[in-house]
Design brief:
Blueprint lengths: L11 E5 L3 H12 L2 E7 L2 H6 L9 E6 L7 E6 L22 E5 L4 H9 L4 E2 L4 E5 L2 E9 L5 E9 L17 E5 L3 H11 L3 E8 L12 H6 L2 E7 L7 E6 L16 E8 L3 H10 L3 E9 L5 E8 L5 E7 L6
Parallel strand pairs: 1-4, 5-9, 10-13, 14-17
Antiparallel strand pairs: 1-14, 2-3, 3-4, 5-10, 6-8, 7-8, 8-9, 11-12, 12-13, 15-16, 16-17
């Protein structure tokens, strides 16, 4: 499938929360995001998540005002508060989307403190590590809606290109899917969907300190294998596949209306070709629907449910140039 300007990672993520107003207020305060839209959720987009419009779904869209991608759509149902997906899950447990990554543009300790003052808990102390020649500090937090954010502060070489952003973090740029078999996951994304790997490595944490909450002896002695993939091989709107050296729980039975990270949305130029490849690779498909993303465009979209129950929405805008 030929890449185009549209075939370049996810530009939105959807999270289901108990109280969209409260979540939007907290996240904007923590991250310097602003509200871009409030209203009812588009019926076509609800259908791609197997949700009923009659349940009164509404949304608040927030984002980093200096960035044109990485918006977060916070959805709330008018009915009873649903259970949380991945309830009690650890980083090594399979099922759905694990987290969303942010670049910390200031000291990560300050950013972590801001999250923890606003309803989030750290999953482990801040950890220092080197990946691909980059020295970074990283932390991981989760709240009562099972929204999980990873944050990374670049130590060396210094992060560049973000002087235009006034807040403490970048837009979301990466998201993790935990898998049992990394080779199988790479076959799905690289051979099946035709994406490109930009990082393919193993990590052993010297001293054992790690952000995932692994026991120190496991993190110190057993490698964690990971591959980061994206259509054009860029670290923007990318998906990180991680396989852990331990046995975990399986949360693939979580329901679509439950709270937590529900999906990632990828603008593409050829929806039909993408769906053919995804289905051949073993994904379940929620058929195309017309959707309206407001100022971010109308078009056709379908949902691809990966073998790890992570839902990826692929959106072909009406103005997309076919390759």
């Amino acid at each position: 499938m030929t890449n185009s300007a549209h075939d370049n990672g996810y530009d939105e993520l959807i999270a289901i929360v108990a109280d969209a107003d409260a979540s939007a207020e907290r996240l904007c305060q923590i991250m310097g995001f602003v509200v871009g839209h409030r209203g009812l959720v588009d019926p076509g987009l609800l259908a791609l998540h197997e949700l009923d419009p009659a349940q009164g779904w509404r949304e608040i869209v927030i984002g980093q005002p200096q960035c044109d991608r990485g918006r977060i759509r916070l959805w709330q149902c008018a009915g009873a508060v649903a259970p949380a997906r991945r309830l009690g899950a650890q980083a090594w447990d399979v099922g759905g989307l694990f987290d969303v990554s942010l670049r910390s543009l200031g000291p990560i300790d300050d950013l972590l403190a801001g999250f923890c003052r606003n309803g989030f808990s750290a999953m482990a102390p801040v950890a220092d590590f080197n990946m691909g020649g980059l020295d970074v500090r990283e932390a991981l937090v989760r709240d009562g809606d099972s929204l999980c954010f990873a944050m990374a502060e670049r130590i060396s070489p210094p992060l560049t290109g973000w002087d235009h952003v006034e807040g403490p973090v970048s837009n979301p740029f990466n998201s993790v899917i935990t898998v049992e078999d990394l080779d199988e996951a790479k076959r799905f994304f690289l051979d099946g969907l035709g994406w490109t790997a930009l990082v393919d490595t193993t990590l052993v944490h010297e001293g054992g300190r790690n952000v995932m909450g692994l026991p120190l002896d496991v993190a110190r002695d057993k490698p964690v294998a990971l591959t980061i993939v994206q259509q054009q091989g860029r670290m923007e709107g990318s998906v990180e596949l991680i396989a852990y050296p331990c046995e975990g729980h399986d949360f693939r039975g979580d329901q679509p209306h439950w709270r937590g990270l529900a999906s990632l949305s990828f603008p593409i130029s050829n929806l039909e070709a993408l769906l053919e490849r995804a289905e051949a690779a073993g994904a379940a498909i929620v058929p195309p629907r017309s959707i309206d993303r407001g100022i971010h465009g109308r078009g056709q979209a379908a949902a691809v449910i990966t073998p790890w129950a992570a839902r990826l929405v692929f959106f072909q805008p009406d103005n997309a140039a076919r390759p």
